[in-house]
Specification:
Helices cover 37% and strands 14% of the residues. The protein has one domain. By secondary structure, the protein is α/β, with parallel strands linked by helices. It contains twelve helices and ten strands. Helix 4 crosses helix 5, helix 5 runs parallel beside helix 7 and helix 6 crosses helix 8.
Length: 336
């Protein structure tokens, strides 16, 4: 994999963009704490050599991405993002078995803390990774009770509950879209709805330690069913987001006319309904991105070059062409 070579003028602009990130976002009593529920991108476990490319690309890219704050989900080996743009993490499988007061204690401690000495964080946000089958039934009831305990004011702005980021797993969304088991998710839905933001994981397990994409039908149906349930439980549509995982480029079941080149089709799917467009506009998360996914993202950004101001487009186009030298800027995707 080639190293990234950026001319001095481009590098200066990119450096200025990183400084802009460091100074943006404020809320509550701490000027460094982000506003609860504000639009943002989240990077989580991208491959080592492309981390800084993604961190530069996501806040500034045209096309399917908006120019908004980017946050880094810890743990991470490195990041160019400042401490106020880093988010703590708790393991959903671990806390699902705990009594409510211990769940609340761990979440509160993570929000108040600074993650770790090597990569301190100062966003005073914590993500539950993730809300999966462990939270069906009793596990969901315990989490809801814990979120109720966190409904008190935090020193960082808003309540402690409104500083808990929720990653919503594919099995939960699939159940909510089915008539078979949605009732068993009632408490988990209420707990998620009480959180800071809801990140819908648009990927699924395809083997031990492996994840893959979801069908076009899932892109059409799962966000609608999930957000309907969350809003009915007191959540807000403005707090919903997509978390994008690895993809092959194409999306199973997607009409070829919507993505004729079969490159970056998940980005087309993320714009394929009015609800999807709204969620995508509010900021997207990326999980386990590698060179192929970066290439698809770059292809979309270069193809939609004319949708952004020239200076920023020049920066993004240069970064992307360093990584995707065989891609053409002349192709476009139909958005439907």
């Amino acid at each position: 994999m080639r190293g990234l070579r950026i001319p001095l003028g481009i590098a200066a602009v990119v450096g200025a963009l990183a400084l802009t990130l460091a100074s943006s976002g404020c809320g509550g009593s701490d000027p460094s704490a982000p506003v609860s529920g504000a639009p943002r991108h989240i990077i989580y476990l991208s491959e080592f050599r492309i981390r800084t490319v993604l961190e530069r690309l996501l806040p500034n890219g045209p096309g399917p991405l908006e120019r908004i704050d980017t946050f880094r989900q810890l743990p991470a080996a490195e990041t160019i993002l400042p401490p106020q743009n880093r988010i703590a993490r708790v393991d959903g499988k671990v806390i699902a078995t705990l009594p409510p007061d211990q769940i609340a204690m761990r979440l509160r401690r993570a929000i108040d803390g600074t993650c770790n000495p090597a990569l301190p964080c100062a966003s005073h946000l914590v993500a539950i990774d993730d809300i999966n089958t462990e939270f069906m039934g009793a596990g969901g009831a315990r989490l809801k009770a814990a979120m109720d305990q966190l409904n008190d004011e935090s020193p960082w702005g808003s309540s402690y509950a409104k500083r808990v980021v929720m990653y919503v797993a594919y099995p939960m969304m699939a159940s909510l879209a089915s008539s078979a088991t949605p009732g068993r998710w009632e408490n988990a839905v209420a707990a998620v709805a009480a959180g800071e933001s809801y990140w819908l994981e648009m990927y699924q397990s395809v083997g031990k330690g492996q994840i893959g994409g979801v069908s076009y039908g899932a892109w059409q149906n799962l966000p609608r069913a999930t957000m309907r349930a969350l809003v009915a439980a007191g959540g807000e549509l403005s707090r919903g987001h997509f978390m994008m995982g690895p993809s092959k480029g194409s999306v199973e079941g997607m009409p070829a006319r919507l993505c004729p080149s079969s490159v970056g089709c998940v980005w087309v799917a993320s714009q394929s309904t009015p609800l999807n467009r709204q969620l995508a506009h509010q900021g997207t998360g990326v999980y386990r991105f590698g060179p192929r996914q970066l290439g698809a993202l770059c292809f979309q950004n270069i193809a939609m070059h004319g949708t952004d101001e020239g200076l920023y487009s020049d920066v993004i186009t240069h970064l992307c062409r360093e990584w995707t030298p065989t891609r053409s800027a002349g192709s476009t995707h139909a958005q439907g």
